[in-house]
Each structure stands twice: as C-alpha cells, then as structure tokens.
C-alpha cells in the first residue's frame, strides 16, 4: 500500500527525529509487562504523567509512536473546541434521527438516533449527527488548526527513534471533513502516543506535553486551570465515562475518569479499530491514557482495557 503520509506532505514521511536512543530501561518495565499480560497482541496502551510528560507505560515495543491509524470519534472533542471558538453555543440542540435520516449524507451510528442533544449530551453519546452540524458552521481550516494545536500531524518529540508524524489532511467541507475526522477516508491518522498527548492537551486546557522516557529532572508543573471553553468539553468527556456514556465501564469500575471512545472503520468500513483517549482523575488530572485495539471497537474493547490499565497503574503508582 502506498504510504498514506504522501496525502499530507512528502516531507512529513521523513521524521526529523534525533539519532536512535535505546529504550530507557534495560530491564523490561513492570507496568508494561503487567499491561501486556492483559492486552491483545495487536493493541497499544500508553500512559503519560501529565506533570512532566514521563511515559509511565507504553506496551508492545515502539508501536505507540511508529504505527498510525484513523482516530474515529476521538476527534469529536476537538471539533467541539473549534466550533466553540467559532461562536457555537453549547446549549444549541440538534435532533439525531439515526441511520434513517432522509436528508443526511452522513448518518449517525445509532440505528434509531440519539434524539435531541446539546453539546454535553453529544460528547457523552458520541453522536455523529451533532458534530456534523457543528462542522457545517466552521470556517475553513478551523478544525485543522485545532488538530495541529493538539499535537496531531507532527512528531510529539519523544526521546525515541523513528517517530511517525501521523497524517493530517482535513477536508474543509462538512461531510468530507467529518468523514476524514472519523477516519473514514484515511486522511487523518494518529499514533497512540499522539492520542495520549491530545488527551493531556484536553486535560490541561491547552498545554502541550512532550512525552519523555528520560524525564528525570525536567518536571514542570502545568496548571490545570482550563478556561471556560475547555471546562465545558472536559465536562462532556467526564459524562462520557459516566452511566450513559460510551465509556461507562470506567465509572462502573469506580474510576472518576474522562475521555472519548473511537471506533474507526477500515477495509471499506466493515472492520474497525477501537480507541480510547482520556485522563484520570477527571477533576485534577494526573495521567493521560490512550488505548488502541486493532480489529476492535472503542466501547467493547478499548474501554475495558483502559479500566485494566488504570487498575494496574493505581496499584504501582507509588513506585513509578
Ligand atoms: Zn446520533
């Protein structure tokens, strides 16, 4: 298959990463081993400490920063940020009628529709229709600007070799833009590490965290004082991990977490990859987490793995 990064820019295919560095610890890391023991082979779990960017877990070798895949609905919070900045009102409601909506070019995944939703409900339930409506209101390039700001389409700067920059080619037309944002056209691809950095960006209200294996001595405190716009989106992501949300299993397991699921189609849409990107605790975020499961879905596969990852992290946090 031709490299998809050619869709974006040829130069982006050559990652400007520094010379190869060894993985930081010669001995296998305990948290990585524990997570790999409960993970499918074709999956990746990344945990970043938000305060200093230290990579606390990264399973299955270098996969976290060398593979890139369509992110699916992980990008909906970023669509919300772009739309709110452009003047969208979070109380504005749209009615989702599901797959049967006669005039929709891009239908919702929910067969019968989500009904009437505001922004928080749309983030909680991951309604395609709502975000399509938001994209219709956006000026050209507004979404692409937010995606770049959140760290997509460029290397994160991790101190490891051969980092993929992912792919970022956003169509400014609403239908095509949502299709690319949902990963249906293969024009946006993110690495699991970028997904974790994106989650940290949301958690901190817009601070970009540079992931580091060798983080000792570089700790910097990032004030988790998001402005009203980020606070709103964070509330939606917290509800996504609540009883009615697509990541409800986190709340059911006792984690007051926040985040977004993603289920990205490939092979003409009849196979999917599952994602989760979020942070914990929701109120005072300490870590960002991303989970990718090949041939899976966000809710069924990635979220339960995120639960296991948080359990393993919590068990070891004092020794990390
Ligand atoms: Zn819907």
Give a verbal description of the structure:
With 320 residues, the protein is an alpha+beta fold. It has one domain (28-319): 3-Layer(aba) Sandwich (Beta-lactamase). It has helices spanning 30-37, 63-66, 76-85, 119-125, 128-136, 142-149, 174-181, 192-203, 228-240, 248-252, 298-316; strands spanning 43-49, 55-58, 94-96, 115-117, 167-168, 188-189, 258-266, 271-280, 287-293. It has a 5-stranded antiparallel beta sheet, with helices on both faces. Helix 3 runs antiparallel to helix 9 (228-240) and helix 4 (119-125) packs parallel to helix 9 (228-240). The protein starts with 29 loop residues before the first helix and ends with a helix. The structure holds zinc ion. Zinc ion binds at residues 96, 108, 110, 113-114, 127-129.
